[in-house]
Please model this.
Amino acid sequence: MSKLEQILILDPPTDLKFKGPFTDVVTANLRLRNPSDRRVCFKVKTTAPRRYCVRPNSGAIDAGATVTISVMLQPFDYDPNEKSKHKFMVQTIFAPGNVADMEAMWRDARPEDLMDSKLRCVFEMPSENDKVHEVDAVKPAAVLNSSRVDGPAVPRGGGGGLGGEDTEMRKLLEDCKRLQSEMSKLSEENRQLKDDGVRMRKPMWSENVMSNASALIGRESAVSSLPSLLVVIAAIFIGFFLGKFVL
Model:
């Protein structure tokens, strides 16, 4: 008896392409579409189960429905000279009317009732053109996000961008005026503090001047009285000597 042809339509049909770099998890999507009028059970198998994570790896697809399978390749050291030998197989069977245990159904299934499709894994590194396209795609997205963020700040009136600039200029002028007023207040307070300091120093300076003046006057009086005292002493000595000679 010939084997049944695969009832599901696979997208992609033959190759699962994984695009590097492979320093992180790389995901490839596989779409399974059921074009029949019957429910179909599926199971996904691979020759390298430790290298891949498949979600979901089994299940059932209703008539006319589509399921997307995420095949996640784990990080590894990519060697461009090494050809990939990894393969996947999608195995299917028409679901019985009252299936309750999926594992038992697959275990008891007859080989002639099974359908399968095989896919090979292809590893690709991004080319220089792909890198340029990715950078070019990121730039418009960044500009769009910035315009969304800055958009509400622009007035809705006819001014457009000029209106936003005028608003910013007015804010800057107001800030400058406020700073100037604060600077003038600080200058006035500084001047007042200097005046208070000068007024506090004046009494102390006058007291020092008076004490120095009185001391200076005392010195002058002492110096001025010194010659008269010398005259008196000289007269005494002269009288003393004259008295001796006369006697």
